[in-house]
């Protein structure tokens, strides 16, 4: 039957998901709650609502409803770029000469170039419904900032983006896309916030980090009336919005009677990975399958494979609540040589908990191998992948090559989260042979862990 | 009925075109043939086959078969990125508050970022079938070069791209995409060809032109064994391959019982426009409709609205055969201020003939208005358009606004040929308010016309 599966399938409109899947409702145990760093007590909804939109906070704290309806106002914008295609990678299979069946869900066919738009549009919608006038956020490579700029343009909200300074300088065109959608973009650290000024005084000339940009955006949001902060990954409600990826993928594969043996996704903050695996993981948590879930992270920023499962700040200025997660410490700085994205020091609490409880595994891969896989993929499948997404390609290729050795016809599904149009400087380094691998040594890790807050529980 | 049309429709696989439409077979009169510039006689197939692939030459000279089958080997690659979506622009309609129904066919959802891949893949396929080892081509903004690099990577052909030097320098990332797909990229004019060396000696420091890059690519192809030249627009066989755009569009609109009143496309060399209008124009030529076809060109390079219908070279070094077309003269150089693409001095002989015979009309628009329309479109429809494509948006918006005045519910279809990810430098000028309009004066035009060859017929 699978021989007849088309190269590319768009889920029919009638089967499009009308609700997100709340993975937490399927987990045997809740992950540990956010803590207020000052009191050491769990954060109340009211505390969180000073920072985030009200509906997002309700979703963040909801661990009981298995489904959460996608409002009509969001689904009508989803129609703008969803369904995304589920592709049977016939050309890659041929290139690898593997008996494995490889599928990927491609989220790059929208102007933000990635899956980020799934949550951006939801968060902007809820902000608009709440009567807010503006939003703030941080962005690293710029995909999230672009997605949110698109969403804010659509709903008529002002947007202020703090962009990690190295990216701001290296990716002027990504910045320009955000401006084209009407956002204002500030390089971080900036002198417009206390968090930025403090970092600048301690580390003059620093290129910044996501953690610092988050701190600046939160500060700006909490001091501005009618304004809230939105985050593009890590948090439970973001992961919730990303479950549309997994739901569409599973709906298509179910149409063809295909069940994956392995599901692979790249992990930065963990929301795309969590969203991709959600419907299959919900089944696994109920004992209905035994899928091998593989999260892939860069060896240069190995928050899961070499991090600690501990309470930590979500930002480097230590102004956010504490989250229990795998983390390298909120002061961990990836090497500037690291070109492949996925630089965040921590990981989604949901994904962290699933990993800690043994429901999935993690692979850490080197960026030179990631770019080699990306180029191989591009030349046969056509799509130019984002370096982030190529982490998943690398491991999918490895798994498929193992099948060539063993002769096993595994079914592999991976998430292709976005395109690499704005990453050509990194591709150039790879093409020129100047891209280097960086793997933090024990001293680097110890430096990062020294930033971990002391919390009674840990 | 049209109220129920989805935002975005992908043609079902069962209805995908299996043949291109040969518009020439519907035209009451053939356009004038290519002439050998030395003899003044029509070019023989054998002469053309020294430059182009054999099958492309057969298609070029075929004005009798109404349909030409799309080989299975091409259709399987088309599956990689086709069908492209036909979008009902509900958000743009709302933004414009117009009673018009606006549809667009979006060709940008592939890594080349444009419709160019439709012909690239066909020409690479035929080259491979013929046993050729390498291809050469020119590229300006880089969309065509990228498309052909993808196609050559897929079929295992070597590719040498001559890239207009100004673009080569302004768009290093576009160049890098081609390299990632394995192509070699040379800035034009280069010192590797006679054509390049001649231009460099006459105009040291010149930024080059498409005409010169064509001359270099043709020279390289004709002196290299097992190598041919491929062109990304203008020629009849390229237009033929682009008819897949119009065929898919019409098939979707027919499914919904929608008949356009106006069909709008941007025009550089004319192949996307010709491909978009083909099935509707074939009907018009048979008296079956009276659609208003509007080709849109930049006011800075007005080959149709201010050019001459005359025999001219396709390149600036005057080594190609002569084509009868609307042209500004093969030595016409658009202003370097012109950022919006569509810089070619001539126009498809098929489109030129249709225009000359009164079956369509042309509008020339200023680039500042084009970018304003692009930004307005991006903010409501989400897609960031290529400046080239935004020429069509500009006129579609104008037409829809006229409907708001008149109250008429026109049905407007336009071609959205690609995305603007690699055009952010131009968007930046627009956002900064530094983008200028350039309109050639009579002296500029006269200078261009002075390059026209003397041919008995004209």
How would you describe the overall organization of this protein?
Two copies of one chain form a homodimer. Chain A has helices at residues 45-49, 54-61, 72-78, 90-96, 117-129, 143-155, 165-170, 172-180, 194-202, 210-223, 236-255, 271-285, 349-356, 367-381, 387-406, 424-432, 442-449; strands spanning 8-9, 19-21, 67-69, 86-88, 101-106, 134-139, 158-164, 184-188, 227-229, 262-266, 292-298, 308-313, 322-327, 361-365, 411-416. The first copy, chain A, has 458 residues and is α/β, with parallel strands linked by helices. Chain A has a domain at 10-16 and 70-113 and 237-449: 3-Layer(aba) Sandwich (Rossmann fold), CATH 3.40.50.1100. In chain A, the strands form four sheets. In chain A, strands 1-4-5-15-10-11-14 form a seven-stranded mixed sheet, sandwiched between helices. In chain A, strands 8-7-6-9 form a four-stranded parallel sheet, with helices on both faces. In chain A, strand 6 (134-139), helix 6 (143-155) and strand 7 form a beta-alpha-beta unit. In chain A, helix 2 packs across helix 11 (236-255), helix 4 crosses helix 14 (367-381) and helix 6 runs parallel beside helix 8. The longest helix of chain A has 20 residues, at 236-255. Chain A is globular, with a radius of gyration of 20 Å. Chain A starts with 7 loop residues before the first strand and ends in a 9-residue tail after the last helix. The mean pLDDT of chain A is 94.
